[in-house]
Specification:
Layout: E1 25-27, H1 42-46, E2 52-58, E3 70-78, H2 87-91, E4 97-99, E5 114-116, H3 117-120, H4 141-145, H5 183-186
Antiparallel strand pairs: 1-4, 2-3, 3-5
């Protein structure tokens, strides 16, 4: 009441956000590039707006996305429903899901506000190799959470993602085994990007 009024010339001048600001979500990676998400779906259960859809799958030695037994094969956040409360972040047992300071989520289409796993995954740093790839030699899942893995092992290469239609020659295909559908959130018939006209 007695403070000087602050007028922002947005969007030309943007006020910096607080460090704990609740903005767009991010799926984090381990230091070697493997994903932290284990597909447990606790974030989806905690969401009061039913904005998150997760579908877990089992890792294999030929195609490993996370150090543990499972990973999040399909991960979607519907920002048409999300209220940015952060309950999903509190529920995550592996700190795979965090919130960034990005708040400019407005767009011209409803479809673009349904973020997929590829859009939410954190970028790769210099010491990382994109998943899927083998676990660090001599390490276990627990070693990852103890912080013993600090970078990708020398000679680590990305495995062929068979579940995403890739071939050994590196040709990409149609992802028939892992469709980005959200049956619980968006309806069993349609992919999430199309089920937005309700």
């Amino acid at each position: 009441m007695f403070k000087k009024r602050l007028t922002e010339q947005y969007p030309e001048e943007k006020k910096p956000t607080a460090p704990r600001f609740h903005g767009r979500h991010q799926l984090n990676r381990h230091p070697d590039g493997l994903e932290k998400c284990v597909g447990c779906e606790l974030c989806a259960w905690a969401c009061p707006a039913d904005a998150i859809y997760v579908e877990g799958a089992d890792n294999t030695d030929e195609e490993r996305y996370s150090p543990g037994e499972r990973y999040g094969r399909v991960y979607q956040i519907n920002y048409l429903r999300c209220i940015l409360c952060g309950l999903c972040v509190e529920a995550c047992p592996t700190r795979a899901l965090t919130m960034t300071n990005e708040y400019e989520l407005a767009d011209r289409s409803r479809e673009s506000l349904i973020y997929t796993k590829e859009e939410l995954l954190a970028g790769l740093e210099d010491t990382m190799v994109d998943s899927p790839h083998a676990i660090y030699p001599g390490m276990t899942e627990k070693d990852y959470y103890r912080g013993l893995v600090t970078e990708a092992a020398p000679g680590t290469v990305r495995q062929v993602a068979v579940s995403k239609g890739e071939t050994a020659e590196g040709e990409g295909g149609v992802d028939t085994a892992a469709p980005q559908e959200a049956a619980a959130t968006f309806g069993p018939e349609e992919p999430a990007a199309r089920e937005v006209t309700q």
